[in-house]
Amino acid sequence: MKALLILPHSSACVERVFSEVNLVKTPTTNRLRPSTVANRLLARQHLRRNEKNCHTWTPPKELLNSVQSGQCHSRYTTRLCQKATENVVTFYDVLDGTN
């Protein structure tokens, strides 16, 4: 009986997210990575929460400096390298049965 108490009252919240994803993934942007779609959704939600849009939002100076200096790109490539090394399975891992 307790399992029935965890069912959502409606699926409106989930349907709203799918609707937002459909707005982000257009026919020209249908090959976006899931992380890119998630980041775009977060940006849209942040702008909406602060009652801004892409025309009225002004980026902070720290963000502009980070982009101009290349720090954003270096952080991104560092994260990619970390993810790549985390997902590497060696021959010895297979022999040991750890993966």
Brief overview:
The chain is an all-alpha fold and 99 residues long. It contains 5 helices and no strands. It comes from Plakobranchus ocellatus.
Please describe what this structure looks like.
With 99 residues, this protein is mainly alpha-helical. It has 2 domains: 12-58, no CATH class; 60-99. It contains 5 helices and no strands. The protein has helices spanning 12-24, 34-49, 61-69, 71-86, 91-96. The longest helix has 16 residues, at 34-49. The protein is extended, with a radius of gyration of 20 Å. The model has no long low-confidence stretch (mean pLDDT 79).
Number of strands: 0
How many domain units? 2
User: Proportion of β residues?
Assistant: under 5%
Q: What is the gyration radius calculated from CA atoms?
A: 20 Å
Helical stretch tally = 5
Helix % is 55-70%
Average of pLDDT: 79
**Gross morphology:** extended
Element order: H for helix, E for strand: HHHHH
Largest sheet: none
Uncertain spans: none
Task: Describe the structure using short key phrases.
Zinc finger protein; 2 domains; mainly alpha; 99 residues; 5 helices
Note the topology.
Blueprint: H1 12-24, H2 34-49, H3 61-69, H4 71-86, H5 91-96
